[in-house]
Design a protein that fits this description.
By secondary structure, the protein is α/β, with parallel strands linked by helices. It contains 23 helices and 19 strands. Strands 8, 9, 10, 11, 12, 13 and 14 form a seven-stranded mixed sheet that branches. Strands 4-3-7-6-5 form a five-stranded antiparallel sheet, sandwiched between helices. The N terminus is likely disordered.
Length: 713
């Protein structure tokens, strides 16, 4: 406001001077004061640009004053401002020299065109030429200074650009207006100064906006985390150096690409859904961890925070993503996990060695006793063979636990009644935990059905019972309960179960409880507080529950026992009495031709002897390639392929596929103790799990042979 008042008074000053008849000095005083004030109030419009409203007064001086007074306009313009800002002497000399030379050259151009007289047209042309000279010379001198002082090219300074020239023409044009008003009617000078003030005000606002934009750009570029500015359709507009370094590409390569396209395919689909919710206003912001694909194809990981950038009317204008590169942290975490795995393997080795050595000692000892009796011509004791069988069953149980906790065991799920499983296992559990522990079962009548592997469920019951017995060394009570549970919307069930219908199995003991420091690790594989053992009991329980699509929750209090609450999804299907339908046998078993594909010789020989003793014709192959050759010779006579799943070269699934393409009526029975990554491919196939007994094998084989062809695959 002070500037406005001073300039308004300056507009009246020429009239006062004119009354005293001091024409050149009066004009000089007015123009010099105006140039000094305008220079102090100059507006910055860029790094090397400013709206120099003082040039309006310099231009008017070049058109109105004699050369002697024009020569002092540079000093009048920059003298006070230079002292106030304490510019270095060389900068002050340049500024004064630039304005002085600019004004004198404009004066010379004007006088050359107008001459000693001339009409209005010549005067107008002279004024325009002088104004163009002011802009051209001033901008050129500034560009040369920046070029020499900062070693920037003329193009990079943008001082000679059309935009910069247009900005310079604004005050020059107003200076020409000042000249015409001075010559015709000086009382109208405020009319010329008003646009000058308006231009200064406008460019001041634009200057602040430019400064704000440059400040944002500087923050955006120098941010330690990656940043991407996007349109509301997800297209990247701009990216900073951190993001470009993270992805190994430049801004030009990122601009125009869809943000979701920067992500790994498994994250891209979810990102599109979340970004859509953000744009539609269903989310204010969101924070996720994402895997990004770098330029060289490698994956890098980032913690991304996305939010909307709104305009002055609070309407969404852009989306901004801030991405912290956590690849190194993820790599360190993976190294830590690998280290923990190696430590766990060390613990496993001790526990497994202890248990398996006991099993092998029993098998080898009873086997040697049997051989000694045979060599002596004595009969083999049945009790010895039974002990060998028990040891083998123990070994099979141990491997089943290993596969269960690692979730690599081949599931054979069917619709079952949990009450029936608990009832069938109750007698065995009583013998297992001893007479000093009381077992109570509370089974809900009409319990809903679940779909699970009965063998795994039984294994889970055994492990929990053994765990409870060890928690009650002096005796106690174990309660097993079943119930239906419905988790409503907006709430969660035991173990974080989402809304839905479940069947719950609750195991409660009155034992010593679990110490608080141990609770976080109870499901950790190989972790045990006992002096011996593998630490797989509760890890197996956890693996069975997770593999069955369920949830588990544990509550314990020192000295007050432990309660395990398991939720398994309820299904609306009828319970089946058997894994498959009961076959209708049409005659004596045997007589069919079986092709065996098994790479383990001892297993292949055992199966061959069992099947031949049962009356089957047997063809055997040690791998898939040999099985294909045998089928070429005996294809029409082969009724069933009995193949191991995991074999060198072609696996059993690939072998079955090739043979089925040759003979569509060929039945297949898969066998394996470990299916690797083929579990999903065997979901609907006939399967028998190793280890199996001869009786289990012949029963399963007969079952598959008696099925209709279309149901046997």
């Amino acid at each position: 406001m002070l500037c406005v008042g001073v300039l308004a008074l300056a507009g009246v000053l020429p009239a006062v001077v004119h009354l005293h008849g001091n024409e050149p000095w009066g004009a000089f005083a007015f123009l010099a004061v105006g140039a000094a004030i305008a220079n102090i109030r100059g507006v910055t419009t860029g790094r090397h640009h400013r709206l120099d409203t003082a040039m309006a007064f310099v231009t008017a001086a070049a058109l109105l004053l004699p050369i002697e007074l024009v020569a002092f306009m540079g000093l009048a313009q920059h003298g006070i401002d230079g002292m106030r800002r304490r510019y270095p002497w060389f900068a002050q000399v340049f500024n004064i020299s630039n304005s002085t030379l600019t004004a004198m050259l404009a004066w010379a151009v004007h006088r050359e065109i107008v001459g000693t007289g001339g009409g209005n047209l010549r005067g107008a042309l002279g004024a325009l030429a002088a104004g163009a000279t002011v802009v051209a010379v001033d901008q050129t001198f500034l560009a040369v200074m920046v070029r020499l002082g900062h070693r920037q090219s003329f193009r990079s300074t943008r001082l000679l650009s059309l935009e910069s020239v247009a900005v310079g023409l604004v005050p020059v044009s107003l200076g020409i207006s000042v000249m015409f008003f001075w010559m015709n009617d000086r009382w109208f000078l405020p009319v010329a100064l008003a646009p000058l003030l308006l231009a200064q005000r406008t460019y001041a606002i634009l200057g602040r906006l430019t400064e704000s934009e440059e400040r944002f750009r500087a923050m955006f570029e120098s941010a330690a985390v990656g940043a991407a500015l996007m349109e509301l359709d997800g297209r990247v507009i701009s990216s900073n150096r951190a993001l470009q370094s993270m992805l190994g590409c430049g801004d030009a390569e990122l601009s125009g690409r869809q943000y979701a396209a920067l992500l790994a395919p498994d994250d891209a689909r979810e990102e599109e859904d979340l970004f859509g919710e953000l744009v539609r206003g269903e989310r204010v912001e969101y924070h996720v961890e994402r895997a990004y694909v770098a330029q060289d194809g490698t994956r890098v990981f980032g913690n991304a925070s996305l939010a909307l950038v709104r305009d002055a009317r609070d309407n969404p204008r852009y989306a901004l993503a801030m991405i912290e590169n956590v690849t190194e942290r993820k790599n360190l975490e993976e190294q830590l996990r690998q280290s923990q795995k190696m430590e766990a393997v060390g613990r496993l080795a001790g526990g497994i060695a202890h248990d398996f050595n006991n099993v092998l000692t029993a098998i080898m000892g009873y086997c040697e006793v049997a051989l000694i009796r045979v060599d002596a011509g004595l009969p083999v004791e049945r009790a010895d063979l039974e002990e060998m069988e028990k040891a083998a069953v123990r070994a099979a149980s141990l491997t089943a636990q290993l596969l269960a906790f690692s979730r690599k065991q081949m599931l054979q799920p069917r619709v079952i009644d949990a009450n029936e499983i608990v009832s069938d296992m109750e007698k065995m559990l009583r013998r297992l935990i001893g007479e000093d522990v009381e077992i109570a079962t509370v089974l809900r009548p009409g319990l809903g059905a679940i779909k699970a592997d009965p063998g795994q469920l039984q294994q889970m019951l055994v492990n929990l019972a053994v765990n409870a017995r060890e928690a009650m060394p002096g005796g106690g009570r174990l309660t097993v309960e079943t119930a239906d549970l419905e988790v409503s919307e907006g709430s969660t069930g035991p173990g974080g179960a989402p809304p839905g219908r479940y069947v719950t199995l609750v195991f409660s003991d009155t034992g010593v409880g679990i110490p608080p420091e141990t609770m976080p690790r109870i499901f950790e594989p190989f972790f045990t507080t006992k002096k011996t053992g593998t630490g797989l009991g509760l890890a197996t329980v956890y693996g069975v529950v997770m593999q069955s699509g369920g949830f588990i929750d544990v509550k314990s209090e020192a000295g007050a026992g432990t309660t395990y609450r398991i939720c398994l999804p309820r299904v609306d299907e009828e319970c089946t009495a058997s894994e498959y339908f009961e076959p209708q046998l049409t005659g004596d078993a045997g007589g069919e031709t079986i092709l065996i594909a098994e790479d383990e010789e001892v297993v292949r020989k055992l199966i061959r002897e069992v099947l031949r003793a049962a009356g089957y014709e047997v063809l055997e192959a040690q791998d898939a390639e040999e099985a294909l050759r045998i089928h070429e010779l005996h294809g029409e006579s082969i009724d069933l392929l009995l193949t191991d799943v995991v074999m060198p070269g072609l696996n059993g699934i690939e072998l079955a596929g090739r043979l089925s393409s040759r003979a569509s009526g060929l039945r297949t029975l898969f066998m394996s103790g470990y299916t690797g990554n083929a579990t999903a491919s065997l979901a609907d196939a006939a399967f028998i799990r190793k280890p199996f007994t001869p009786h289990e094998l012949t029963r399963k084989l007969r079952e598959v042979l008696e099925r209709p062809v279309e149901a046997a695959a």
